[in-house]
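thread: overnight batch results

M.L. [08:02]
morning all. the overnight job finished for the chain we discussed friday. pasting input first so we're all looking at the same thing
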Amino acid sequence: MAKTSSRLLFWWVVVGVVALDFVTKRLAVANLTDSGPVYLLGDWLSFRLVYNTGAAFGISVGPYSRWVFMVLAMVALVVLGAMVRQTPHRQWFRLLTLGLVCGGAIGNLIDRVRSPRGVVDFIDVWIGTFHWPTFNVADMAVSCGAIALAAVLWSEGKHENEAVAEAASAPETST
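M.L. [08:03]
and the structure it wrote out:
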């Protein structure tokens, strides 16, 4: 992939995730009520409007959660931006994963800035008696992107370690 198209892929993913997250959250707020879920696939998948003032899995730091998680999201975006700038253009999959994480972080940051009620969550999953915490499109992008990014970074580290080990074990040549 050309240098420009790899960077464009990153930006298209970011914009796509933010747009899809924004639209789905607005639809959830407009069509769901706090009174109960809308069942889609039996008992295991439903839409239910929830406002999350904390972070993933409802992690909270008390009354300052909104501000703490806003600052953490902005710091994460700066770090991710540095990773994007350091990523060679030929590593399109790494740029895609970074786009997913950045897009999701921006999507949830928009909610934190817009409303003290918190992030709009609306996707509810149950497997038997196990209930996964209610989530949204941004959460899915962050989770899938972070897992894929971890795999990419692990693979890169593994290849670098193999190259170092191979170089160390190569016989020296004298000139």
